[in-house]
Give the backbone structure.
Amino acid sequence: MNRTSGGCEENCVYYKPITMGREVNEGLPVYKVLKSKTEGSYVIIVSRERTDGKLQYIAVLIDAWKMGLKDCFGSNNITKQEFQKKLIKIWGKLTIFAEISLSEALWFVKYGLRIAKEVKTRIPLEFEEFKYILGNMDDVKVEGSLYKCFKCEKGELSDEVVKLIKEVAGHDMAAHVCGTPAETMIYCVCDECR
C-alpha cells in the first residue's frame, strides 16, 4: 500500500521524511556557491542554509567540452561540518574550488543542460531530485554557440567547430569512452584566445 500526504498534518511521522529539508528556497540564504578550478569538466556546488542551521546542497558535474550536465548528487539535510568533510573526501582539498556568484553558477548549470539536451546526454535523476536548491532558472539566458571557448569558457566558437565537437562527442558517447583515457582529446578556442 502506498501512503500519500493527503490527510496528513505537517508533523505526521509518515509524511515528514518526504518533506523534510525541502524548504522553499526563495527565503533560504545562500551558504556557499563554488566552482572547481578545472578545465573542461567542472563541478558547480550551490548550498543553502536551512532555518535549523543545517544545509541543503546540490553538486553538478558539467562536461563543457562534450556531454554537458552529466552527473549530480546532493543532500537536503547535512551539517556544515559534514558538508565540508564530504567535499574533502571526494575532492581531496577545498582549494580546488573558487567561490562564484549564484547567478554565475546558474548560468553554468543552464549551459550544461543546454549541451546535454542537444547531444542527448541523459539527465541524472538526482538532478531532478535536488534542482529545487538552485532556485528559479527561468530568467537565466544562455545564448550564442552551443559550445564555448575551451580556455575562457565564454568566447563563441564557429558553426564548423561546434559541428566537429558534436561529432566527436557523439562518437565518444556511443563508444562509452567519455571521461576515460580512450576519450578523443580536442581543444577548441575562440578567436580572442587563439
Residues 102-119 form the longest helix (18 residues). DSSP finds five helices and five strands in the chain.
